[in-house]
Amino acid sequence: MRGTRTATGAALVAGALAVTGLALAPTAAAVTPQSATITASCGIFGGGTATLTATQSGTSATITLTSSAVTAPVAVAQDSITSTLTLAKAGGGSVVFSGKKNPAMNTGAPVSVGPLPGTVASGDRLDAYGGSLKMVIFGITVTCTANGPQAPGPFVFD
After folding, report:
1. Is the pLDDT confidence value at 15 over 70?
2. CA gap 36, 143 in Å, rounded
3. Do 66 and 111 contact (CB within 8 A), yes or no?
4. How far apart (Å, rounded) are the C-alpha atoms in residues 115 and 55?
5. Which tens digits make up the pLDDT trace of 50-78?
6. Which of its termini does the chain have fewer beta carbons within 10 Å around, N or C?
7. CB atoms closer than 10 angstroms to residue 91
8. Environment class of residue 106 by beta-carbon count within 10 Å: exposed (0-12), middle (13-18) or buried (19+)?
9. Where does the signal sequence lie (predicted)?
10. Which pairing describes strands 47-57 and 60-71: parallel, antiparallel, or unpaired?
């Protein structure tokens, strides 16, 4: 009987600690909005509407850019585009998201790069307007810039 009480007591203590741990665990950080649109110009490579999608986990964040207005001029292999996305920080400065991450794209396919990783701080307000996207494809650099602020507004990181 004494062994049963000890086991029951230990189980109750373990359960209470688990519940307390859940209550005290930090909540997942979130970025708002999770997606935004911009109108961008990429010089002789075209331009138009693009969608930026953001995710956040603590100080790590990723941005993915897709655009059906800008298309691949040639077939592109997966993870062959070196991309550097610079977003302007409210109040000055910038945050860079970079990497070599893209899906395979056929000639004429919508352009998509990312998710591109970067580091953010709580309270960062980032906008594509005032920044740029540089993509190096087969040694050719394509630079795109936003023509105005992103909608519905800047990314705000927790």
Report:
1. no
2. 19
3. yes
4. 9
5. 999 999 999 999 999 999 888 888 899 99
6. N
7. 8
8. exposed
9. 1-25
10. antiparallel
pTM of the model: 0.80
Contact 89, 124 (CB under 8 A): yes
Domains: count for the chain: 1
Cis peptide preceding 73, ω within 30 of 0? no
> Cα-Cα-Cα-Cα dihedral of 68, 125, 85, 49, to 10°?
20
Whether 103 maps to a domain, the answer reads yes
pLDDT of 14: 37
Three-class SS state of 43: helix
Judged against a pLDDT cut of 60, whether residue 134 lies above it is answered with yes
Cα end-to-end distance, the chain, whole Å = 52
21's enclosing H/E stretch is helix 2-24
CATH of residue 132's domain is: 2.60.40
Residues 138-150 have a mean pLDDT of 94
CA-based radius of gyration for the chain: 22
Which pair of tokens denotes residue 61? 């964040």
Least confident of 5-9, 27-31, 54-58, 61-65: 5-9
Residue 128 lies in a domain: yes
